[in-house]
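Hey forum,

I'm writing up a methods section and want to include a predicted complex as supplementary material. The small molecule is guanosine-5'-triphosphate. I've pasted the protein sequence and the SMILES. Can someone with a working setup run it? I'll credit the forum in the acknowledgements.
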Amino acid sequence: MGKIYDPKFIRNISISGAPNVGKTTLAEALLYTAGQIPQMGSVDKGTTIMDFDEEEIEKKMSLRSSLAFVEWKDIKINMIDIPGIPDLVAEVRSAFRVTEGIIFIVSASEGITIDTEKDWHFADDYKIARVVFINKMDSEEADFYSVAETLANKFKKPVIPIELPIGKGSDFKGTVDLIHMKAVYPDKNGARLDEIPSDMMDKVKEYREKLFDVVAETDDALIEKYLNGVELTPEEVENGVKSCTLNNKFIPILCGSALNNIGTTVLLDTIISFLPSPLYTGEITGKDPSHPEQTIRRHPDPQEPFSGFIFKTRIDPFAGKISFCRICSGVINVGDEIYNVNKNTKEKIAHLYMVNGKNMKEIQTLEAGDIAVFAKIDSLDTGNTVTDPTKPLLYEPIRLPSPSYFVAIHSTDRKAEDKLASVFQIIAQEDSTFHYGYNDITKEMVVSCIGEIQARIIFDIIKHKYKLNFETRTPRVAYKETITAKAEGHYKHKKQSGGHGQYGEVYLRVEPLPRNGGFAFDEEIFGGAIPRNYVPAIEKGAIEACESGVVAGYPVVDLKVTVYDGSYHEVDSSDMSFRIAGLHATKLALEAAKSVILEPIAKVRIYIDESDIGNVMGDLGTRRGKVIGMDKISEDVTVINATAPYSEMLAYSPVLNSLTSGRGRFEMEIDHYDILPASEYEKAKKQAELMKKEEEERKNS
Ligand SMILES: Nc1nc2c(ncn2[C@@H]2O[C@H](COP(=O)(O)OP(=O)(O)OP(=O)(O)O)[C@@H](O)[C@H]2O)c(=O)[nH]1
Ligand SMILES: [Mg+2]
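Reply by user p_vandermeer:
Happy to help. Structure tokens for the complex are below, copy them as they are.
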């Protein structure tokens, strides 16, 4: 049976930062320092707790978030190691959603990158307390002071060191604790305290002053003492740093080398002392599912009714579906029944686990503030709220950007194609930013996600793990056709071939409907020219005619077909005859009704720096984009709201990257259809021909 931790003895921490800065290695060092594992594994050898997936071991990088925990001075620290690849934004947002603190890792040799900034802004959005850990101090290119300076200047809140490195590169030995004024060296018992090297005293004085300036601000009594030149005590500084960090007003910088396990004991102490517990963060609000306008409040209190939030799903080849649940309130026990509020289903908890990477340990009970793991409960999906069946409430789902990268999937192997859909389903459960669907117009499977790197990772997994082969290409555009004028069509279907003949005559009218009007059908037949029972067959024929239009063969939409006259034969008329007459009469009417091609228009949101507005707007103009408005959503970020033809935006990702030096991102979704300019007709017709050819090849294969 696992130990049960009171919420005030829990810390939930995200380990975040740009790719390759050492997040997984740091998690490994923390697990080792806290005694959770007997020796440190290595990313390069594929032996870490957090990067356990075959593909991660092969690529030597994290591809999804992993959870593990340590106990440090009686406090349980749940750590989520987030992959650095910027496309995997769902991993960042889901981890931030369920952790009260972040260890932000920055490389001492590479400094801040655009990816660091993006995650930092997410953390600001979620208002999460954080500490910075400047890693890789053992690297020869390490430059702690320059990185610390950039951090201090880059962000609005004070970001100031609370420790300084002793040496760097191969001489990096330990750190100076600026609060307690001690040198801290790694030791077989964790850490050894010593006097500060005398040659560092100038730097120490300089940085202690920076720290004191901020800390003194927290308290009037401290300001007075400080201004009168009275030295603040270590306790006063510590309390000041603690209160500022807990309340996210100040961000302390620490440093070390994850690889050599230097700086980890101070980091663990900092996590438990300065980062908030679930109890500290307190109230969580949700909505009453029956009255969404009403807010329900829960607290990380074991006495309250159970509620939890599923923030992550993993599909394990052996254990099946694994659901990670942040317990927001109450207690969960094996044998309890829980209610999935999103799905309206009840589930019995047969097993409950705590996990360390891939290792799952069965437990009986967990309390509010902790992270529980359920296995094999199919109805649970990421973003679902689970509660005590008698006390439901709904927590807000994880806010995720819409996809901006689209790829069509092609396979010449029919069996592989069927299997692909089921593999996509698994992947979509694990990654909420991955979507897929079959487009009936373009006759292709289209996958959408945040970016090209994410797509490539997913495709590699499918090829290696599921052994499925397929090709990818830019998706086709789902053009449609419509009419721009009223017109009439007449067709008499008459055949005499032994026995019963075939007879049906139809007069009909087509007229345009407003955009999104779809297809409408009506009849105005007088005097029984066509018996009523044949009208549905005529409608069927008209619908069939609209499946492929007369300009390039795309489906025809936004029109009304009205049958107003015709004739029939007592013996030879049938549903089939009238269907054929309806089909041809409609085709003839479409020919006369000035048919045009429609193209999908996307609503686009482009997030950029103010300085890139000119470039981005100029480029949008060349893509037939129309700017609707602009919003400055923060000090650094401006959003351009625009519409643009979907076809022009399919390969926009790399363009935006180069226009904004990697800072920009965009989201889009198809909003409406508009008439395709004549200059683009050739493209649409060529695509239609290709589709036809491919369809024939498929039929013959
Ligand atoms: N010199 C040095 N190398 C380090 C240190 N920490 C990690 N590394 C190396 O940096 C590389 C990346 O380490 P990871 O721990 O996988 O980095 P990560 O941030 O988890 O990377 P992603 O999850 O893929 O974004 C590996 O080769 C590590 O051995 C460090 O403190 N010093
Ligand atoms: Mg990693």
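Some notes you might quote in the supplement: The chain has a mean pLDDT of 92. The chain has five domains: 7-281, 284-387, 405-475, 481-593, 598-680.
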